[in-house]
Structure formats: structure tokens, C-alpha cells
Design brief:
Layout: H1 2-39, H2 60-68, E1 72-77, E2 84-90, E3 98-103, H3 114-122, E4 126-130, H4 149-164, E5 169-175, H5 177-186, E6 194-200, H6 206-216, H7 222-240, H8 249-253, E7 260-265, H9 274-282, E8 287-292, H10 300-303, H11 307-316
Parallel strand pairs: 3-4, 3-5, 5-6, 6-7, 7-8
Antiparallel strand pairs: 1-2, 2-4
Length: 321
Amino acid sequence: MKKKTSLRRHHLWRWLVGIIVIIAVALFAAGSYFFSVAMVPSHKSFINNSNRISRSDPLYSQKMWFKKAPKQQWTMESASGGYRLVADYLPAAKKTTKNVIILHGFMGKKEKMGEYAAMFHQLGYNVLMPDARAHGQSQGKYIGYGWPERYDVRKWSEKLIAKNGQNSQIVIFGVSMGGATTMMTSGIQLPHQVKAFVEDCGYDSLNAELNYEAGNLYNIPRVIRAPLIGSLSVINRVKNGFYTHEASSTEMLAHNHRPMLFIHGSKDTFVPTKMVYQNYAATKGPKKLWIVKGAKHAASYEKEPQEYPRQVARFLNQYVK
């Protein structure tokens, strides 16, 4: 009888171990797949990367101006990893101390930010537009969602100061992933020449955004998301150098005491609008929140082509003279 009981327990343990191994292998396989979707630069079916400029576009003139504008190419080595990073530099029409660093979104590139370059150029700024790691002309294996890139942005600001002098005043501006990069950058030690930030539709944390998109894009049940993201996070730590839960805009904003303007569309379903309220609450410096009624993700400027530059200028003019 004891022998039969012992055999049953042995078979039960083998069965349990087998189930655990199957689950672990399945989680690793799923985590590897979603790592390739989220972290490896490639064509993404859910991202519109069309370069076509339509005459019906409310920002047609701004985009065409940028397309034709003369640009200088700047390069530098990334803050870590030894990658060659590339940026476009557009000097202001008149000599000025005002500078802006413009940061693009997920699987974007500097050329996709032409309307914002035109806006800041019209406001009298020198404009620097980097390609993030693993985007556009810049080297890199994996997408960092703003976490390693925050130190690259600091290096770009130091390069601007070296070029334009110690009296430089710098604004950091970003949209979507670029907005999150802006917020993450705000929490590290920066040159005193960095005066203010403008973020448009950035997420509150990478984990929260991954969790949201797992449901929004893939309809993954909530109960499965945590272990799946955990698996992806471990793979990301090995390959990309950080756990996904580390990349938090709100945690970095808690260390920021510089002014920041937050912009978000009321109908954003890619980075849900509710995230901006947590970001806004987290920052410690002077701040303003503008919710653009009816605007979808990264479309606030398009929705309000006249009011958008006014809001940006009105906020920045308080801090950049």
C-alpha cells in the first residue's frame, strides 16, 4: 500500500514538474516573440510610417518647409553601447540662444518630425533632431523606449552647448515615445542650460504601456499579461540592459523641478489619455496640462494647427527669453 502511495506521489510530482516546464517554455517562447515585436526595430503593422505628404494635411506647409530646408548633419557616439547616432541641425534664421531638441516616436525618425521643426524654427529656435538608437540613420540593436536614450539626450544637449555657447537655453520636446524620453530625461542630472520640457502623449511607464497594448492590440487576457511581460522583461534585461519596470516616466518626473508642458489628445487610444494625469501629478516643477479635445494619438498639432504653437510658445516664453 505504501509503495502504491509513493508511486502515486512520484507520478504526481513528475506531472507537476512537466506542467511547470511546459508553462515556463511557453512563457519564454511568448516572451521572445513579444520581445521581437516590441524591442527589435522592424516594420510594425500597427504603425503608420508613410512618408506621403497630402495637400489636404493641415500641416502640409510645415512639412514641405522642412523637406526643403537646408540641414546640417551631426553625429556622436551614444552614451552607452558605442553606437553612432545621427541628428539633423537647423540653425535659426537669426542668431539666438534658444535651442530645442526634438524627439520622435516609436519606429519613427527625425524626418517624421518636420512639422514640429518648422514650428520651433518659426518661434526662433535652433533645432536639433536626433534619430534615436535603432531608428532612422542611428545605429543600435534594440529599442529602449527612452530609458537608455535619456543619457543620449543629455549628450546631445552638451553638444549643443559646445556648439552654441554657455549662454545657450535648451528646451527638450518629444512626441509619444519621444514624449516619454523627454520625461525620463527630466529626472537625471542635466546642464543648467536645459530650461524646460514639452511632452506630447508620452506613456507613464513602459510596463503600463506594454500591459495596455497586450490587451488593446492582441486581446491577451489580463491574468496572462503579468507573467508574459515578466518573461519579456527578463529577456530585455539580458539583451537590452534593463528590466521593463525600470523605464518609468512618473518615477523620473518625481526628480524633475524644471517647467514642463504636458499635451495629450482626449481620444488617444494608443497611449491612453488617463496616463497624462499621472505624469502631470508626478512632476515637481512648474507645469501646465493641455488636453486637446478630439485628438487621437500624436495628432494634437494636426487637430489644432493654430492653437498648438500658441500653447507651446505661451508656456516656453515664461522660461526661455
